Amino acid sequence: MTLNTIVTGGAGFIGSHLVERLLADGCNVAVLDNFSTGRLDNLSHLSNHDGLTIHDVDISDSGSLQGLFTGVEWVFHLAALADIVPSIQHPLNYHRTNVDGTIAVVEAARNSGVERFVYVASSSCYGIPDKYPTSENELIQPEYPYALTKFLGEQIVLHWHKVYGFPSISLRLFNVYGPRSRTGGTYGAVFGVFLAQKLAGKPFTVVGDGNQTRDFTFVTDVVDALMQAAQSQCLGEVFNVGSGTPHSVNELIELLKGDVVHIPKRPGEPDITLADTTKIRSKLSWKPQVSFEEGVQIMLENIDYWGKAPVWDANSIAKATKEWFTYLG
User: pTM value?
Assistant: First the structure.
């Protein structure tokens, strides 16, 4: 298929994998990224592709988006600020990017008449859920500004569908991992933290007893879900994207092999994340293909990527997450 597409945040972890897939499928791809967290290196292997253009823009500056959406059929909106602690420290920055930026992108897309708009939402909107597996109908209870702003972005996208018939769909992602996952941050990017520690010969910093489980979902499976969403006729709807199978941090440590140091359990973190994927399996005919063991092996085969990543230890994590405990403890 030859489609003109936009991927905001296309130089990031998930975004770069999506760009790779779209180009492989014959699409033209315009990446919109300000490189605050995304890395140009994530797209370096695609730099000579005729179908790729890269724009250094701030999505919250609506003026910088002028003309970029003309003739575009599909938009995938991934650009966002992530992580818990920085969102507590700088909530206005998160609102500006994740909320104001989403409005700017949505309006640019609507005014250009795009055919599909896929919003990448976060399962963090569920907070600490009352039920597991967690369905799309579960109570929304964000624990920190990042989760709130991502949910507000989703509400904008869905409201635009209700009011303007905007052709949008939202996917709430659970614990995505894979090659090129983020190398910074003390929350969320557990693989990035652990692999940098493994390369440096340092112990893995395990939160609590390590028995907490996560719905680890491999990045290529997530990209498949994004593509299925763009191709579907299901508009104005929300879908969970997860493996539907929980794995503990201790299981991950067994596969990575290394020493462990335990750090205090952190407030606002659920003991379990587990997606109810009934809806996406039924309506989008999507299901994950990469097992946890296969995914971890792929990560180990690409471990050199984390050679320049910051190496966290118990002391640096305690310092970086001090405000986390202050506000949420």
Answer: 0.96
Q: What's the domain range around 190?
A: 179-215+244-274+290-328
User: Residue 124 — φ and ψ, nearest 5°?
Assistant: -65, -15
Handedness of CA 69, 177, 229, 121 (dihedral sign): negative
* 69 lies in some domain: yes
Alpha helix positions (H), 145-273: 145-164, 190-199, 219-231, 249-256
Helix (H, G, I), strand (E, B) or coil at 61: coil
* Integer Cα distance of 105 and 156 in angstroms: 11
pLDDT in tens, 154-197: 999 999 999 999 999 999 999 999 999 876 655 547 898 999 99
Closest-CA residue to 4 (of 60, 57, 53, 55): 53
Catalytic residues: 146
Using the CB atoms, write b or e for 69-95: b if 16+ within 10 Å. Answer: beebbbbbbbbbbbbbbbbbeeeebbb
The answer as to whether 226 is a domain residue is: yes
